[in-house]
Fold:
Amino acid sequence: MKNYDAVIIGAGQAGMPLAKKISAKGLTVALIEKRVIGGTCINDGCSPTKTMVASARVAHIVSRAEDFGVNVKSFSIDQKVIKARKDHIVTTFRGGAEKSLKKAENIDIILGKATVLSSNKVSIDREGAEVLEISGEKIFLNTGSSPFILEIDGLKETPYLTSSSIMELEETPEHLIILGAGYIGLEFGQMFNRFGSKVTIIDKAPRLVPKEDKDVCEEVSKIFTEESIETILEAAVTKVNYENKQFKVYLEDNTGPKMVEGSHLLVATGRKPNSKGLGLEGIGVKLTEKGHIVVNETFETSLPNIYALGDVAGSPPFTHMAYNDAHIAFRSIYEGGKEISSKDRLLPYCVFIDPQLARIGLNEQEAKEKGISYKVGKFFMKHAGRALETDETSGFFKVLVDPKSKQILGATILSLDGGDVMAVLQMAMVGEVTYDKIQNLPIAHPTLAESLNNLMMQIE
Structure:
């Protein structure tokens, strides 16, 4: 039995960088992957979806060409080419990830399904080969998550789509019904609407993006309405039927029972942690009711020497947070970084609808729930020079600040390239730059970022 300094199960956005960091210290690493290198981000999430979002945005811009004085007689969508472009990006990114891992010394990549036997032993079921057993001083679990499918009468008997399989379509749906209005449902909904599909989004929540402030939800709803995307909220789906190549979705909302009929159905009702089948219950690793692996602030599980990172550990389900998990675990375990942990870290995220919805830190409803005093500033894109020049005037910047310290508590950016603008405020928060310093800071003109001057002048 071969012994390693570290055994990492899952070559995702925590597992890959962690493997390289550990091997760079001259330690041996076994990196086990049952599917393909790169995890959800490269293969099913960020890379492919944002590639397709880019195609959808081009379609949207072309459809508005006359607004800019450009006459385009006609255009059409070729879903096969869109898929091929997406596949090329995925293959390129995956190939780059594999190449960087193979260049690193001391890393053995093992393809197969892993089962944890104890705090230092793992067995690997390899296709076409005998089961392999290895041991490791430390074991890291980075097995990610997968689509969560609701128990709905008749659903399992239908050819519904998930966030992975929908990207394999080579035809544009005539009418796409989406169950779930989370960031996955919203991104795919707007995307396929711009490809020419009729889109209906159904969700049980009372409003879109319910974790955001009410004014943000209203603005997102306005944008979707203007693009003729139908949303049915506060709805409970009771049954799904499929016949004659048509889906029938039966539901009840506050107006009573109704039925929606469409050509394709996407189930985007969240994701579940990939913790089953790892053998964790048998060796005493604690799980939550939803199946996430219980970890402390440095990602150690209830069993010494076993750690869990990323989605499976209940971290915020974003690539950058999984990468940060790996950094924290590595610093804590291998470099004695006792001051570093996941406690109180800032959570930036961006929903890639158009305009982008990005947030960092607190919003108003969270500040009120926590009893935190704040002042608020809000600046609409319809008054921003860059937004007017590009005719991208939907949305606004919104910021919360501490009345006494003048530190930024949080910001919501709903605008063109909102994620990039949010990152500027994130760095200001980390660097403890007060809002009054930003008010008169010379920021290049004409850029979206210069509207941060105006945003800070609106604080009341």
